[in-house]
Amino acid sequence: MQPSSTVKISKTFFPLQTKLKIGADFNSHLGVWQFNTSWEDRIIGGRLIVAGRELQYYKTWMLNGGQGLMGDLVTRLCLRAAVDIDTMKAHARFGFRTERFMPIHISEGFNWARKFPLDPNGNLSVELKANFAFPEPEIEFSTENHKSFVGMGDIEMNIEELNFCLEY
Prior knowledge:
Layout: E1 4-13, E2 18-27, E3 32-41, E4 47-51, E5 54-64, E6 73-84, E7 90-100, E8 110-117, E9 124-133, E10 138-142, E11 147-151, E12 156-167
Parallel strand pairs: 1-12
Antiparallel strand pairs: 1-2, 2-3, 3-4, 4-5, 5-6, 6-7, 8-9, 9-12, 10-11
């Protein structure tokens, strides 16, 4: 267990049917501040982000592949448009990717993330991100005494991040 620790500070505003979030993250291991902003449009559901010198707009749609033979397929449509703030050059990308829903392999592990509030207003919280992996069960049956045996190993838990969040 060697989690990275980050202090996350953010402020959220709701102007003109949108959600504007301004924040800064301090990585205590690296001693680095990372500033971030996002602006979510509640009408059509996209995100407006400032990344470096670019103003970027993201929108993602998920389309189900249907039932039957292809019932476990989903198609993700992605739109990304950006404007370079210095040169005012714009570009856009539209793409799609077909993905198959796969069952979770518990022996390989699954990710878990949760925020735990530290005050009644929910402004201060601890964010925990971890990975859990379960062992593959061993099942034996004895023909001599007609008994079965089920064996399990250790559950592995890896805490990847432990973050302190201050949100207003």
